[in-house]
Amino acid sequence: MIDQIVKSLTLEEKAVLLSGKTVWETFEIKNKNIPSIFLADGPHGLRKQEGASDHLGLNQSIPATCFPTAATLANSWDELLVEKVGKALGKEAKANNVQVLLGPGLNIKRNPLCGRNFEYFSEDPYLSGKMAASIVRGIQENGTIACPKHLAVNNQELRRMSSDSIVDEQTLREIYLTGFEIVVKESKPKAIMSAYNKINGIYANEHKELLQDILRDDWGFEGFVVSDWGGDNNHVEGVRNGSHLQMPSTGLYGPLEIIEAVENKTLSVEALNNRVKELLTVLLNIPEENNQMSLDFEEQHKIAYEAALKSAVLLKNNQLLPINDEVKVAIIGDFAQNPRFQGAGSSVVNAKNVEITNEVIEKYPLNVIGYEQGFNRHGKEDKSLSDNAINLAKNSDVVLLYIGLDEISESEGKDRERFNLSKNQVNLIDKLSELDVSIVAVVSAGSAIDFSWENKVDAILHGYLTGEAGATALLDIIVGKTSPSGKLNETIPLKYSDIPFGDEFPQKDEKVLYKEGIFVGYRYFDKANTEVQYPFGYGLSYTTFEYSELIITQEGVKFKISNVGNMSGEEIPQLYIGNPTEKILRPEKELKGFSKVFLNPGENKQVFIPFDETSFRYFNSRTHNWEIDTQDYLIYVGSSSRDIRLEGTIRISGNANKAYNLEQLPNYQQANLLNLSEKEFEILHGKSLPNNSTSGRKLLNENSTIQDMYEARSVIARFIQKRIQNMIAKNEANGKTDLNLLFINNMPFRAIAKMTNGMVSMQMVDGIVTMVNGRHIKGFGNLLSSFSKGVIKKQKLKKKIRGM
Q1: What is the C-alpha to C-alpha distance for residues 581 and 573, in angstroms, rounded to an integer?
Q2: Helix, strand, coil shares of the chain as percentages rounded to 5?
Q3: 406: helix, strand or coil
Q4: What is the maximum span of the chain, computed from C-alpha positions, in angstroms?
């Protein structure tokens, strides 16, 4: 049937189907019964804009349930729970007539300073993939379309729309694509969002090997690919190489580009028909909307609470928690009154029912003697706030200290500037630690932070970004109503300088060199035998678990877990596999399975964790294939990556080939990345490294960013860029984040055509760039000429598609 529909479509109708009609909607063709669909942000809560949309899609949205962010959910290691959150997200989308929910995000946490880490699950691709597969299954249960993002190697916000990720093939497949592979194969999402950046010189949205050979042919993806908003570099190249939907609307300029390319024979009709057919396969199978569907926000809130509860991580406990009602408790910290429960950017949810600790704590049998703000959340020193907090603490037995990163620290469009907490918060910790009181630090942050102050407090409960129901969830753990069960989805290093190439992040030039290769997160720290603050997979409980009776078979591992403590709780046993091959670079061990097990005191259960297709494989960049080495593999079962309780081996047969001469990669062999040269990375990469741009006045092009205007030849352009930087700095000094400014500053000139709803064409962008390069009269003339020609072309196309 779809073949017949495609045959019946005119060239103009096919072209408009592959472009947005508005910021969030696609074109419909009524006489062919092809519906329009609505796409909305939603990694951890629906963000559907109210009223008319702004061009960047960042205006106020309708009230919705705010669930914990992906970075928080991953700490639960609970596939059933995450699927439950997905169902709730899909239900909310359905009730608001949203067909496509843009999420989850599952880019790898390569460096803790990435401004968008709070939206991503983990430093580990296996955990990321399993969590993403779970939430996608839930979202799509009722017919809502999930859209995992951003495919791929999208790991910094600076220059995110124009940077070029230079990565070797083994690392690309094992670290940055495995999570996407798992989600595609296990939960079959009907959409995928491509990334802004280039991968080894080719834009992700135009990458045939990525979008066609790997995504569709290898993994069996049967959905459509949508560009990130404004991330469609060249619409024709995207369509040719496997991308379908250009978003947001470019007016009719996008369809015109396709029409002209077909007429000029630079885009084949076959390629166009393939993309239209693949898109319609999804659009024509979307269930009819149920506009009468009701939404129980109280029930949604309960799910948000459960997710926050099971995702909180107890990092330290000197037998202080849980606290009882006999002690005098002081509440200190701005976050107790003004909770930090989500990140900033396109994922910001207009939360329906945000809990505030100072309000909900009244329901608990605690002897609370008062509250003090303690510090300015944006880092400004205020002695009176600190003094008031100290005076309150002197009269207490226990301080519940609510600290964390502020909204400016973690945001889309801007990477973090520091690893540590603000200085005024650390100073307050120092002062409180000198008193004769016990301190519980309750932390709010979307990614790893510096915990060098941990010896000055008695307990640390890390909630990450809890969503709207976090206050109750964390208090339930603090008073012992529930035992904490979350475990870290990432390694927390002792200090930022321990992170490989941390001084180069974010890369300020166009080329971003992934020199660490496969040694990301615990893969590096374990191989290099580097001490860490808290290891990957780590988290404490109020009870104690014992592991025993390991049995290893060709199908998987069996073992027994016993709760030998006095409280019910959940444990997360983790399966790691080591491959001591001499044919290719390998980490010491890699996560290959996990489970979450509930046990009452004195209870024990046998746990089975199966092997799967990822368990023993590695990617050989010489043969360009996944291979398995004939080897005695090391099997580890533990409570974290550095708390291994059971060990064994298993013999696995395979057909591996030698990948490269490891003698040429001595520093990679030992994960001695501090001494790594670019020459060694070049050998690993298998090709010469591209040169990065140099500073100084230079000619800019359509893929240069707005911030590059500080190097422009035009004094006017340099003045405009300086004004933008001053406005950003002024906002941050006032504790505010202007997302539109951050977005504009990072976007390339071509995005002016992609993000202005048809006001500007690519030809007009050429005129703008000419002016920026100092040729003002010629550029302005080109701008006017292109505008006039564009108006005429759009009018002609409007007549042809009228009545669609």
Answers
A1: 26
A2: 35, 20, 45
A3: coil
A4: 83
Q: CA 477, CA 143: separation in Å to the nearest integer?
A: 36
What pLDDT does 56 receive? 52
Tally of CB atoms within 10 A around 747: 24
d(CA 745, CA 724): 7
551-602 pLDDT tens trace = 999 999 999 999 999 999 999 999 999 988 777 889 999 999 999 999 999 9
Coil vs helix vs strand at 638: strand
> From residue 208, how far is each of 212, 213, 216, 499 by CA, in Å?
5, 7, 10, 33
Tens-digit pLDDT profile for residues 500-536 = 999 999 998 889 999 999 999 999 999 999 999 999 9
Tell whether the model's pLDDT for residue 801 goes beyond 70: yes
Pairing relationship of beta strands 350-351 and 63-64 according to DSSP bridges: parallel
**Model confidence over 718-749: pLDDT tens digits?**
888 888 888 888 877 776 767 778 778 888 99
Enter the pTM of the model. 0.95
Instruction: Give the whole-angstrom CA distance, residue 146 versus residue 190.
Output: 6
Question: For residue 377, what are its two tokens?
Answer: 């959340």
Our answer to whether residue 296 is catalytic in this structure is: no
According to the model, what pLDDT value does residue 408 have? 86
> Residue 87 — pLDDT band, cuts 50, 70, 90?
very high
Cα dihedral sign, 158-160-162-163: positive
Q: List, for residues 402-454, the tens digit of each pLDDT value.
A: 999 998 889 888 899 999 999 999 999 999 999 999 999 999 999 999 999 99
Q: What whole-number distance in Å separates Cα of residue 364 and Cα of residue 210?
A: 53
Integer CA distances (angstroms), 356 to 185, 363, 402, 541, in order: 40, 12, 12, 25
In angstroms, the CA 452 to CA 402 distance is 17
Residue type, 168: D
Per-residue pLDDT at 55: 47
What's the CA gap between 544 and 567, in Å, rounded? 9
Distances (CA, A) of 556 to 270, 329, 549, 637: 46, 48, 14, 12
DSSP 29-91: BGGGTBPP-BEEE-SSS-BPBPSSPPTTS-S-B-EE--PPPHHHHGGG--HHHHHHHHHHHHH
Question: Amino acid letter at 688?
Answer: S
Residue bearing tokens 């690309």: 172
Asked if 280 and 32 count as a contact pair (C-beta separation under 8 A), the reply is: no
- The active-site residue out of 41, 78, 164, 228 is 228
User: Are the C-beta atoms of residues 399 and 440 closer than 8 Å to each other?
Assistant: yes
